[in-house]
Amino acid sequence: MGTLLDRPGARGAHGAEAWLEEQARSEGWSRAERLRGRRATQGLVGLLQDRGLAVMVEVNCETDFVARNEEFQRLLQQAVLGTMAHCQGRAEPLAAPAKHFLQSEELLQLRAEPHGARLGDQVALAIGKLGENLRLRRAAWLAVPAGCHIGTYVHGAPPRVPPAPAVAMGKYGALVACAPAEPGAEAALRDVGRKVAQHVVGMAPRSLGSAEDEPVGEAETRLLAQSFLLEPAVTLGAFARAQRVNVLDFVRFECGEEAEAAP
């Protein structure tokens, strides 16, 4: 048994809070070790955009019930904010769109705030509170040069999401880099970008392809050769060309998708 000075009540309010936080973190890591092998394929994708940069993060849990919990959603928000801060810190002038991926081990080392806890510690705290295996599975970020645009879309949003700076959540998410094909087409970028992002979520393309590709029907997996979701009579490439927009790259996340189907 510890002395009176070892107890939180003897350390003042700030000391007690820190002690309780440390205890919770310790219990969380202990529970995380016990739950490590349990399958976690539910969860949510979080998305945040800041001008020419957008990030998506997938966090998994065991049940959809926990994915609707505010504690889980706060963890996802912290992961998204930490990823955005990390990517902003690496930003540099671009001549073409840049796409990068972060895996679990890298994400666990990030911090949502400069002097805040690592995301790995926040996961442990959440595991201790929620009693399920949780994992920061992956993240992606897409950056574009000046004059280009990133279209975004999420689908399958949970019924209640705690407030956060523009973090969107859902079961599916997409980022699409696009640029005007000619002067004067800039006004169409936002609308076209969102429509293409909706198509990416709904049709699950696997590669970009080119506008000259001949479609192969329902089995087509090249984005620009697919029938456009909102106008099936034309390909997505033909739709974008008619809007004087070039689609340059994309990223799609589906929560819980098989590893071989993930980027």
Give an overview of the whole structure.
With 263 residues, this protein is α+β, with helices and mostly antiparallel strands. The protein is built from seven helices and ten strands. The protein has helices spanning 12-35, 64-67, 70-89, 104-108, 119-130, 189-203, 236-242, and strands spanning 42-50, 53-61, 98-103, 135-143, 149-155, 168-170, 172-180, 227-228, 231-235, 245-254. The strands form three sheets. It has a five-stranded antiparallel β-sheet. The protein has a three-stranded antiparallel β-sheet with strand order 5-7-10. Strands 8-9 form a two-stranded antiparallel sheet. The chain is globular.
In percent, how much strand structure appears in the residues?
25-35%
Largest sheet: 5 strands, antiparallel
Straight-line distance between termini: 51 Å
Radius of gyration: 21 Å
DSSP strand tally: 10
Given helix and strand content, the structural type is: alpha+beta
The sequence of SSEs as H and E is HEEHHEHHEEEEHEEHE
Question: Which range best describes the helical content: under 10%, 10-25%, 25-40%, 40-55%, 55-70% or over 70%?
Answer: 25-40%
Shape descriptor: globular
Overall pLDDT, averaged?
86
List low-pLDDT spans.
1-11
Strand ordering within the main sheet: 3-4-2-1-6
Total number of helical segments?
7
